[in-house]
């Protein structure tokens, strides 16, 4: 058999806006394809899960190397090299290093710590809704609500200063702004400068935490260091950076897509109002339907095979979570939103295998409380038609609306 070759521009604005017709065509072409530049592309649910679970064949440790390749990015690379080295850490590490990082991070999302955050989420959503009500009956949901809540919660879980939230959010936005689209080199320099600032900030917080470790992720990391099971400072910084960034954008997107679905499907909204137990399944279905992390790369560690095809060592593999989640073999009528699917939790929106999202539980709790609070506090949630319809523009990889204007009454 030969692997079909494709020449697809995943970062094309039309693809970013609506990748699903293209992803459907790719799945019909085959579970394993090859891009003109040699990158392998994995499209179907079964093949995606297979790659994700075979971590010793398909490594995560290459992800950072793909950023800003080529001479035009030399200046941005020099800025990054000037400070903390970007080392394999958690998301970009393989076992056994990954296993050690994961065991330290896991404590921050234990049921006890999430229960404390649970109360904080309830209080925060009420405060944010009060603020929306006080300013009228329309809101841009990301600025007023969905972008604020996850940032506050991940800052608490990590233990970054509350006064620094706005600055950390700006750094986090800059961190993500270059992923999943073609970045002009001069913009890349700006992002690199901001990443260095975030790294310096985290280094300072680690230093402070050493004298009085707190009951949060920063404290866990510093205590592990003091028990002699420490991480290097660059490892600590890379892990904290990942959590701060991964912990806010993705949950914002889930809340926003779900609120949009309720605003545009009045029957669904009516059902969710009559029966709040629908909300958790609706969130799972929205994770499947509008997967906030559409794709990640893996790296082939040694000559291997996938779906009966030879893959040489050193190859790059693009794993399409968003395509897997629209695979009709697993999810019949995949282009319909149906929270009653018997396998509504089987999506791979949180990944699969050893790198399965460590913050999935926190994201589910945050999104559930956020959506329930909107339903409780407003009798009607509708699109604000004084604004253009929301669109996805920023990135193929991190899929989300730029803004969502709602009428909330
Ligand atoms: C709707 C919300 C979220 C989505 C869709 C999501 C998605 C994902 C996905 C797809 C992966 C697997 C990446 C891979 O296979 O390489 C992942 C891993 C990860 N996520 Fe999430 N995530 C969400 C929320 C969160 C939150 C709230 C946090 C932090 C509190 C978080 C922190 C992480 C971390 C640290 C990893 C790496 C885990 C590892 O490598 O072992 N995520 N996430």
State the assembly state of the protein chains: single chain
SS element count, helices: 16
Unreliable residue stretches: none
In the sheet with the most strands, the strands line up as: 1-2-3-9-6-4
Note the overall shape: globular
Question: Which ligands does the model contain, each kind named once?
Answer: protoporphyrin IX containing FE
Please give the share of residues in helix.
40-55%
- Return the average pLDDT rounded to an integer: 92
Report how far apart the termini are: 59 Å
Biggest sheet record: 6 strands, mixed
Q: Would you tell me the structural class of the helices and strands? A: alpha+beta
Order of helices and strands: EHHEEHEHHHEHHHHHHHHEEEEHHEE
Radius of gyration: 21 Å
Proportion of residues in extended strands: 5-15%
Strand element count:
11
In short, what is this structure?
With 409 residues, this protein is an alpha+beta fold.
Blueprint of the fold:
Layout (H helix, E strand, L loop, with lengths): L4 E2 L6 H5 L2 H10 L2 E4 L4 E3 L2 H9 L4 E2 L14 H8 L15 H10 L4 H25 L2 E3 H6 L2 H10 L6 H13 L7 H27 L5 H10 L6 H32 L1 H9 L3 H12 L5 E6 L3 E3 L2 E3 L4 E5 H4 L35 H18 L3 E3 L21 E4 L1
Helix pairs in contact: 4-10, 6-8, 6-16, 8-12, 9-10, 9-12, 10-11, 10-12, 12-13, 12-14, 12-16
Protoporphyrin IX containing FE binds next to helix 8, helix 12 and helix 16.
């Amino acid at each position: 058999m030969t692997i079909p070759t494709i020449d697809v521009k995943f970062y094309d604005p039309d693809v970013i806006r609506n990748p699903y017709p293209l992803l459907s065509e790719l799945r019909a072409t085959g579970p394993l394809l090859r891009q003109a530049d040699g990158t392998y592309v994995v499209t179907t649910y079964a093949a995606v899960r297979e790659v994700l679970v075979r971590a010793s064949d398909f490594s995560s440790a290459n992800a950072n190397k793909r950023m800003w390749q080529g001479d035009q990015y030399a200046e941005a690379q020099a800025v990054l090299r000037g400070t903390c080295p970007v080392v394999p850490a958690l998301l970009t590490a393989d076992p056994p290093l990954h296993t050690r990082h994961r065991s330290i991070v896991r404590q921050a999302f234990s049921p006890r710590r999430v229960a404390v955050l649970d109360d904080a989420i309830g209080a925060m959503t009420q405060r944010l809704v009060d603020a929306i009500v006080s300013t009228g009956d329309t809101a841009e949901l990301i600025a007023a609500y969905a972008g604020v809540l996850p940032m506050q919660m991940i800052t608490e879980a990590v233990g970054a200063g509350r006064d620094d939230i706005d600055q950390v959010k700006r750094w986090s936005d800059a961190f993500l702004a270059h992923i999943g689209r073609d970045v002009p080199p001069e913009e890349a320099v700006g992002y690199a400068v901001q990443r260095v600032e975030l790294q310096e900030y985290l280094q300072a917080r680690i230093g402070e935490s050493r004298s009085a470790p707190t009951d949060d992720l920063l404290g866990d990391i510093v205590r592990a260091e003091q028990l002699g099971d420490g991480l290097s400072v660059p490892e600590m910084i890379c892990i904290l950076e990942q959590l701060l960034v991964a912990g806010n954008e993705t949950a914002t997107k889930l809340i926003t897509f779900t609120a949009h679905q309720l605003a545009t499907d009045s029957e669904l909204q009516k059902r969710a109002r009559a029966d709040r137990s629908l909300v958790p399944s609706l969130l799972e279905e929205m994770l499947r339907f509008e997967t906030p992390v559409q794709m990640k790369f893996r790296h082939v560690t040694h000559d291997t095979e996938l779906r009966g095809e030879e893959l040489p060592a050193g190859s790059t593999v693009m794993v399409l979570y968003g395509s897997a989640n629209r695979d009709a073999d697993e999810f019949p009528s995949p282009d319909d939103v149906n929270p009653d699917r018997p396998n509504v939790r089987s999506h791979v929106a949180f990944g699969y295998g050893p790198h399965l999202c460590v913050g999935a539980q926190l994201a589910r709790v945050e999104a559930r409380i956020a959506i329930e609070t909107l339903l409780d506090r407003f009798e009607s949630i509708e699109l604000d038609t004084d604004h253009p319809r929301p669109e996805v523009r920023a990135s193929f990889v991190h899929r989300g609306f730029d803004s969502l204007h709602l009428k909330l009454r």
